[in-house]
Amino acid sequence: MKMTWIMFIVFPLINSQYIEGQKACYEIDINYNKQTKIPLIYQFGWSEELILNTPKGNRPEPQIIMNQDYIEQHLKTFHNGASLIIVTAILDHYGRDYIGTKNGLFVVPKSQMDILLQAANGSLSVIEKNLGIPQGRWLFKRLSRIDILNPQKFNLRIPSGNEAGVNHLWKPGGLLPNGMKEAIIDMVPKNEYQEVQLNLS
Which range is the signal sequence, renumbered to this chain (predicted)? Predict the structure, then answer.
């Protein structure tokens, strides 16, 4: 069995469009479901600060310390699919039989990825900026978009903060620093995802 090892870090979209100097940053309304927001309520004395101060590997599972209504609303945003972007060479090297690792695969809602790619209009720098990728990291590299049409089949869940890809930018509650949603799924077999080559410059 071949496995594809992926670390995927994303930053959120925000709410309008502006240009500063020669750098474009798109602020996009990500509240596409127009649902009443259910607040995140921590239980048993936990707080965001306490979770962040807990060493990675020892953080509690979200379903233990977060209200169930919040968790259900969060995961509903993935009902139309989940997406990620990956350097195509990684797929070429490790194979495409499976996407992800045993530690989980970070994804964002497919609808939010659609919004980002449409707003970027082919601009690699805009994609990198909004996904939290260092500027130029993907320059001259082929990129693939991966869509998982039914992420619920692969143990869709809110990240706990114990995952291998978590860094200092991680926030509890399945939210990226400015509010874009993220989730974790298990490895996905080839017949359960779609790959599309991106044309960015």
Answer: 1-21
